[in-house]
């Protein structure tokens, strides 16, 4: 495959990751406006967000089968257009003050984002394999950058008193145009993924990857990494305020420090993976996260806790993208395996925060975060399943043509 085609695909993958983050954050940054429009409190918001989570968890196991049937470009378009249509439903629900209509929109929105997420990760693994260098952390860094831009747009429009329905409609127009056009630059779908039996590989079933021990263990590694990241995203600010008697501003700054450390590491960490290999890089990162978490929990002063958060962010950055790369090593089975690993990882994002909130009521929030340390240790122990596999190792698992 020529370099020009790979370079165009590389830029396209960066764009769809960034767009995915922008669309997600455009909604997330203005959740308070949605609560005001629907006249609901924190409990009502939590219930609404559950619909989005259910939509994503329901769609993720199906995403691999969809990508295998229609290709990654069309799968990204399907997910993006579904999420865009959901944005219109959410806008209508907010304008009408209808909780059921908004909830239905969020269910569809979660489904679209889930399908899109798996498909763009699949394309990312194809580009990564074609260019023969580690790129997945940078792709996830593009998602973080898009999310930051989406949050800033949301903040700006909120300051200008632009209503959330109008905001969502504007984002939908941008999303529909870009998600339709950008995937045209994706790589041609590989024969190994769409027609594995033509290459001598057994034709995988849509859900066969759920029976593979290595794939499930990669999912466990990613689950631990996702919980490491998700716990900080949801609770670092509040744990700083509650545990260190700090101001809300200090809590917000602490969260910003975590995100900055994670984003920078995703952008520059690919060289570390190429130099050390996935297993050693994963163990080094999760070890740094564990040290950072312990320092944050037990630090008596704010600046020391800040050092802990930097280590936590550095360590949390690479586990999820390395897991995606490991799941997509074999193009013949990548669709199903990436779907499985994504499902397990996102389950941690959705289940972890309420669990930590409950434990925080019992033990105090900073102490409750120590539970995440067990997930970090789990990722460290099972890290070898993410090791790079050579073409010979992949072929050894396939019957002769």
TrEMBL record:
Residues 9-391 form the Major facilitator superfamily (MFS) profile domain. CDD domains: MFS_MosC_like (cd17393). Coiled coil: none annotated. The chain crosses the membrane at residues 47-67, 141-160, 166-187, 252-269, 290-314, 334-356, 368-387. It is found in: Cell membrane. It is a multi-pass membrane protein. Keywords: Membrane, Transmembrane, Transmembrane helix. This is MFS transporter.
């Amino acid at each position: 495959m020529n370099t020009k085609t790979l370079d165009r695909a590389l830029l396209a993958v960066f764009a769809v990751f960034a767009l995915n983050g922008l669309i997600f954050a455009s909604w997330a940054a203005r959740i308070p406006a949605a609560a005001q429009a629907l006249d609901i409190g924190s409990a009502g918001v939590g219930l609404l967000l559950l619909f989005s989570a259910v939509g994503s968890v329901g769609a993720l196991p199906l995403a691999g089968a969809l990508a295998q049937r229609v290709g990654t470009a069309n799968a990204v378009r399907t997910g993006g257009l579904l999420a865009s249509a959901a944005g219109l439903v959410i806008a209508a629900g907010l304008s009408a003050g209808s909780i059921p209509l908004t909830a239905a929109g969020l269910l569809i929105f979660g489904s679209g984002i889930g399908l899109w997420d798996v498909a763009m990760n699949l394309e990312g693994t194809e580009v990564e394999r074609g260019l023969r260098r580690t790129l997945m952390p940078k792709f996830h860094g593009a998602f973080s950058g898009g999310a930051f831009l989406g949050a800033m747009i949301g903040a700006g429009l909120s300051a200008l008193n632009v209503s959330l329905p109008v905001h969502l409609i504007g984002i939908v127009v941008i999303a529909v145009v870009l998600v339709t056009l950008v995937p045209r630059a994706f790589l041609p779908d590989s024969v190994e993924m769409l027609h594995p039996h033509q290459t001598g590989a057994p034709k995988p079933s849509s859900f066969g990857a759920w029976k593979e021990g290595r794939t499930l263990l990669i999912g466990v590694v990613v689950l631990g990494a996702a919980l490491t990241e998700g716990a900080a995203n949801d609770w670092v600010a509040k744990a700083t305020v509650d545990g260190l008697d700090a101001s809300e501003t200090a809590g917000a700054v602490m969260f910003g420090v975590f995100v900055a450390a994670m984003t920078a590491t995703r952008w520059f960490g690919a060289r570390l993976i190429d130099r050390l290999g996935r297993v050693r890089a994963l163990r080094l990162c999760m070890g740094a996260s564990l040290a950072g978490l312990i320092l944050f929990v037990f630090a008596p002063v704010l600046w020391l806790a800040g050092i802990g958060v930097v280590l936590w962010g550095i360590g949390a950055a690479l586990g999820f993208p390395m897991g995606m790369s490991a799941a997509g090593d074999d193009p013949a089975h990548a669709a199903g395996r990436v779907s499985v690993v994504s499902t397990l990882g996102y389950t941690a994002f959705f289940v972890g925060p309420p669990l930590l909130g409950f434990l925080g009521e019992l033990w105090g929030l900073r102490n409750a975060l120590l539970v995440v340390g067990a997930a970090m240790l789990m990722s460290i122990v099972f890290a070898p399943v993410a090791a790079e596999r050579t073409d010979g190792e992949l072929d050894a698992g396939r019957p002769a043509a």
